[in-house]
Amino acid sequence: MSKKDAEPQEAEPPPEQTVEQLEAKVAELEDRWKRALAETENLRKRLAKDLATAQEAERRRVTAAWLPIVDNLELALAHADEANPIVTGIKAVRDQALDLLAALGYPRDNETGIGFDPVRHEAVSVMPGGGEPGTVVSVVRPGYGKAQQQLRPAAVVVAGEQQDS
User: Where is the segment annotated Disordered (predicted)?
Assistant: First the structure.
């Protein structure tokens, strides 16, 4: 008897079992592939959302850094001689800056005679008898932006109750 005959030979599985195993492996690989595709798509969506959020935050940061410059232009114009032709140029620059702020989604908020809104306004003073209680009498520093997306609230003087002496 030869050595070959003495060793037990491994029995080959029937072809049906091999096909079933291969089909199961294909199904498993297809499932893993579909999951990887879904995960890749979710990652793409999340990164697009994160990028948009980061861009908006950077736009807010840069735009907010320009507000003191716009405020200083306002102060310069408040104390300038209207007849000076340079004042006309400064007004044009200020108007251009305000238009840009509005185009970026941060319109100027300097309305008076409206009700005080703690989301849009920051009360810096109360003027007794200055009008209907709870209304904005004057704007000390304009605000920029809309209620849901605001760079800064408007600093306002609010009308209070009439004080009796």
Answer: 1-20
